[in-house]
Amino acid sequence: MNPITGPIFQVAWVVHDIDAAEQEFTDRYGVDEWVRMPRMHFGPESSRYRDAPADFTLDTSLGYAGGQQLELIAPVSGENLYTEALTRTGPGLHHIAWVPDDFDAALAQAQAQGTEIVQHCTVAEIGMEFVHLSGGPLGSYIELLRLPAPARAMFDSMIPHGYRNPWSCE
Q1: HEC per residue, 29-80
Q2: I need a surface site. Which of 64, 103, 119, 139 has the fewest CB within 10 A?
Q3: What residue stretches are annotated with the VOC domain (predicted)?
């Protein structure tokens, strides 16, 4: 049995220059609007990286290509999975994300299958939680997201007219 089901929610890239990455997606691929979240801080009380408390800051930006959410991540400070990726391979595809119906069950199943949890963070203000699972031979990571109602509403407010996020009813 698979720990995740349903459509992909997000495709994410790690980049050095978030302005240039936004411009590339806008000019070449028609992503018209971006929501920037500068200086998101993840402290040791809310994040773990490779089984140790972590303390880091990121700039992130979210946009939609049709109904597909895109995320750009530019590390600002501290050691984390994103700085690791930039050091290892440079800018590029970082993870694909799903929002499982039962986050806890999906995470437990992934762990039972021996999948490594590389990074685990919470955003207490909106009750969001996410884990990055090792992609193994895939190279990039798999992200699982716990999205309570406030987080879903935030993402629903960003999606272009005529599209819907995977959890929305038709």
Answers
A1: HCCCCEEEEEEEEECCCCEEECCEECCEEEEEEEEEECCEEEEEEEEEECCC
A2: 139
A3: 7-147
